[in-house]
């Protein structure tokens, strides 16, 4: 069983179900990528995994433990980190203050962790005293990821981390995701840049109408003519 599993998830926002039995899992040292059309329920699935949405059916397990009933805050305490799609940095705080905010549940000395994040994202060390709101889109995403990493998570979940950045910055962000997974963290990414994201995916999910349409290695999905035609633009 994988480290994080959302199994047969069903539920939504009170009206009709948005998730219609989808299953998403990711293991430590793996990158899992979720792609699919707009409105497919990708963000909803992430929220369900993180406890921001009550499931009507299905379960979420972490390290084999059922965490379906836990609040997002309790999941953070269990080493889960989630970088939402929008509003994921404090614009009026410096880079350093943003990182400190990420460590709000820690009572130990986190300066070593901050140094590791500066090693991973050297530009953040350079700009540590600058307001996050003054940074470029790609740099803000680095702050958001860095903030999530301050809790030393075993699972890092990212909702469209490359939205609105240039292709070069996207490649850099994906390189950092690979570096993060190599430290043994489970990395789960929702992406619009499906083709590029599947290139770094150990496992890929194509979600449609809240259901799994295709599940395979990133390479296999990229090579599948039906997946290419319907979801990757040919
Ligand atoms: N907070 C919300 N309240 C009600 N409906 C929502 C909410 N967020 C998303 N939805 C609906 O859920 C469906 C799936 O949305 P979402 O999970 O954001 O899709 P995706 O991330 O794949 O684009 C859409 O029909 C959307 O309108
Ligand atoms: Mg979304």
From TrEMBL:
* Assigned keywords, A-Z: Amino-acid transport, ATP-binding, Nucleotide-binding, Transport
Q: Which Gene3D superfamilies match?
A: P-loop containing nucleotide triphosphate hydrolases
Database matches in SUPFAM superfamilies: P-loop containing nucleoside triphosphate hydrolases
Q: Where is the ABC transporter domain?
A: 4-234
| Protein name listed in UniProt | ABC transporter ATP-binding protein
An example GO BP is: L-amino acid transport
Entry-linked PANTHER family: HIGH-AFFINITY BRANCHED-CHAIN AMINO ACID TRANSPORT ATP-BINDING PROTEIN LIVF (PTHR43820)
- InterPro entries, A to Z: AAA+_ATPase, ABC_transporter-like_ATP-bd, BCAA_Transport_ATP-bd_LivF, P-loop_NTPase
Q: Please give the Gene Ontology molecular function terms for this protein.
A: ATP binding; ATP hydrolysis activity; branched-chain amino acid transmembrane transporter activity
Family listed: Belongs to the ABC transporter superfamily.
Q: Which Pfam families match?
A: ABC_tran
């Amino acid at each position: 069983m994988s480290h994080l599993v959302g199994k047969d998830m069903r539920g939504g926002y009170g009206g009709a179900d948005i998730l219609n039995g989808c299953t998403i899992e990711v293991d430590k040292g793996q990158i899992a990528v979720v792609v699919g059309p707009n409105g497919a329920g990708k963000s909803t699935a992430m929220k369900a995994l993180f406890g921001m949405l009550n499931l009507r059916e299905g379960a979420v397990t972490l390290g084999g433990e059922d965490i379906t009933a836990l609040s997002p805050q309790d999941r953070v305490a269990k080493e889960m980190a989630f970088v939402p799609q929008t509003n994921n940095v404090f614009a009026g705080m410096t880079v350093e203050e943003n990182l400190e905010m990420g460590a709000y549940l820690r009572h130990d000395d986190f300066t070593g962790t901050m140094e590791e994040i500066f090693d991973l994202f050297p530009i953040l060390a350079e700009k540590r005293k600058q307001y996050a709101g003054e940074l470029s889109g790609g740099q803000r995403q680095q702050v958001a990821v860095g903030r999530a990493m301050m809790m030393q998570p075993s699972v890092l979940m990212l909702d469209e981390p490359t939205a609105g950045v240039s292709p070069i910055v996207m490649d850099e962000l994906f390189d950092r995701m690979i570096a993060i997974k190599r430290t043994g963290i489970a990395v789960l990414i929702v992406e619009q840049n499906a083709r590029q994201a599947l290139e770094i995916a150990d496992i890929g999910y194509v979600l449609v109408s809240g259901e799994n349409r295709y599940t395979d290695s990133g390479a296999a999905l990229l090579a599948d003519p039906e997946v290419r035609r319907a979801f990757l633009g040919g």
